[in-house]
Amino acid sequence: MKIKIVHRYLLLEILRVFFLTLGLLIFVILMDRASSIAETVLGQGVSILDFLSVLVKGIPAFLGITIPMSFILSVLIVFIQLGNNNELVALKSCGVSTKELSKPVFFLGVVFSLFSFYSLMFLMPKSNVAMKKEIEELVRKKITMSISPKNFSSNFPGVTFYVEKIYPEKGYLENFMVSLVKKNELITIFAKKGILRTEKDTVFLDIQDGSGEFLNWKKPEEFKILDFKNYTVKLYRFTEKERFKATKYKTLPKLLSSDSIEAKVELFKRAGLSLAPLVVGILAFSIAVIIPRGSIGLGVLISLLIIVVYYILYTLMKKIAFKTGIVLLPLIPDLFFLIPGLFLYVQAIKEKMELRVGGRW
Questions:
Q1: Helices 124-145 and 2-41, interaxial angle, to 10°?
Q2: Model confidence over 286-321: pLDDT tens digits?
Q3: Do 189 and 279 fall into the same domain?
Q4: Please, is 308 exposed, middle or buried when counting C-beta atoms within 10 Å of its C-beta (0-12, 13-18, 19+)?
Q5: What pLDDT does residue 354 have?
């Protein structure tokens, strides 16, 4: 019964710090994404609630990275704090071994790894799809709602509209003029009908029954006037942060059924990342119980160093795997931390190692 109380206490403490850290990390990532997305979607006809809806839909896509980061920080903080308060010494004096203390960490590591697997294989692709569709819809809405009938309006750099009649909900334009300034060319089009649509990260305008004036700044003598029945122009292309690679849309069944190298690398990349909570949890616990009292600052520094090194290895192995076709390379970061983690764990259980750097007694 005593052991169960200790386990429950440790579980609650780790979870308390974990969710606080997870919320902070998600907030920081969302703020980073928010600036670029806001530039794209915010405008007339697009409310703050629409913008927040896009951000919320993107949260599941960040869980694969934020869960292991939050877990390692929570484990280190909780167990170092227990050491500072002499609670670890008290528990050991009552017959609670280091191995027993590690059981909640292993349990949460397995739970978070399983949830990370589900998140990366199913929630993240669905989140990417939902987020992309909403961004596309809001961009179209922004364009149409910011176009005022019988007024000149500019929605994006180099694009100017003058419209006699507009139907914002459907993206229909009637009797309009659109001017596009490109690198060395000015295009001015007059038409009876137009339809705004998005496809593959790009906003297009499909034009019917119109004429266009094409002026090349470097070769003005080549000025052209063309009449056409149908014509399509590219109005806007999403930024790099707003784009999603095809593999990021695929859930586990689709990745398994694909024979492409890209899909296989993506599969092992997600599998490796889903193991991260368990791997870094073992390492964090082992470091926390051998680190001296009063070293919470050193513990946080070590956890941040582990996070940075893991992310660098993860990014590097992913890129090398895509280039070489060695699909198992994304698993290397887990092996890199699992081996020293298991070694330190064995030493911690046997109480044969004590890290004195930066400590005080």
A1: 30
A2: 888 887 665 667 767 888 888 889 989 988 998 899
A3: no
A4: exposed
A5: 55
| Same-domain status, 285 and 251 | yes
Domain final position from 221, 242, 263: 242
Does residue 358 fall inside a structural domain?
no
What's at 37, amino acid-wise? I
Nearest to 108 by CA among 281, 338, 349, 333: 281
Predicted local distance difference test score (pLDDT) of residue 55: 81
Q: What is the dihedral of CA 8, 10, 15, 21, to 10 degrees?
A: 170
Residue 336 has pLDDT above 80, yes or no: yes
Provide the pLDDT for residue 39.
64
CA gap 123, 117 in Å, rounded: 9
Residue 151 falls inside a structural domain: yes
Q: Is 223 exposed, middle or buried (0-12, 13-18, 19+ CB in 10 A)?
A: exposed
Q: State yes or no: pLDDT of 37 exceeds 50.
A: yes
Residues 209 and 259 in one domain: no
In a domain, 360, yes or no: no
Q: Are 240 and 230 in contact (CB under 8 A)?
A: no
Residues 189, 104 share a domain? no
- Tell me the per-residue pLDDT of 124-142, one tens digit each, with 9 for 90 and over: 888 888 887 777 777 666 6
Domain residues for 232?
147-242
Count structural domains, the chain. Answer: 2
Helix (H) or strand (E) holding 323: helix 296-324
